[in-house]
Write a structure and sequence with these properties.
This protein has 125 residues and is mainly alpha-helical. Helices cover 77% and strands 0% of the residues. The longest helix has 19 residues.
Length: 125
């Protein structure tokens, strides 16, 4: 019983077990580190990088997303496009228009066109 109590108190004091190995990702990441992580393969690290992306000043966030849209593989560009859609419309719309016109992947262009249609529908209402 005592061992259980010690384990329970340790859990509450030190957090959940899964976070022990993530201490490096708890620190603030540079824009370059965020970009590299978002372009990587580790889903958990990508989620951490997305959180960090939201903490960047708007101009740096836009710069990272534009770089990912220009040089990333299709899944990375799609992720970047979904993050662009979280930006204010005045910032996001020109970027999305560019993706809709010039992305090499037809599915990503279609996704961008759908996003633009959503903006147009909002303007009509």
């Amino acid at each position: 019983m005592r061992t259980f109590a010690v384990a329970l108190v340790s859990l509450f004091l030190f957090g959940c077990v899964g976070n022990i190995v993530d201490t490096e990702l708890r620190r603030e990441m540079t824009p370059e580190e965020i970009k590299k992580t978002l372009a990587g393969d580790d889903f958990r690290q990508k989620n951490k990088a997305r959180e960090q992306l939201g903490k960047l000043p708007p101009s740096e966030r836009v710069a990272v997303l534009k770089e990912l849209l220009a040089e990333g593989d299709s899944p990375t560009r799609l992720l970047a496009l979904s993050e662009v859609m979280k930006l204010p419309e005045t910032t996001a719309k020109p970027i999305i228009e560019d993706v809709a016109k010039s992305d090499p992947d037809e599915e990503i262009r279609e996704f961008a066109e759908t996003a633009l249609e959503m903006y147009d529908e909002e303007e009509e209402e």
